[in-house]
């Protein structure tokens, strides 16, 4: 049986994701609760990725009622994505953007770099 072999990340890399998660969490009390539930759920960095996916679900559910917060979240993720940090790009792509598949109204709100990456995920050619 084969196993997935991907990039090996260090604790310092996961710390970058944790810091990004923490920054997003500061945008709204609900996001802070998501962060606390995931980061405090176990020792280490195993759940920092999960918080990012849960942020996607929260944004989708609250895009109308908390539009300014969702907009700030997208801008924050855009800025983080544009740093070129591999672990940040992967986390945002895999745990945030891929969870937007099937949500065209949310995809339309994405800033340029995230929208381009979403196009790659969806297999769009330009």
UniProtKB/TrEMBL annotation:
Q: Name one Pfam family in it.
A: DUF7674
Origin, by domain of life?
Answer: Bacteria
Q: Which residues form the DUF7674 domain?
A: 24-117
Q: Which InterPro entries match?
A: DUF7674
Name of the featured protein? DUF7674 domain-containing protein
* Organism of origin: Agreia bicolorata
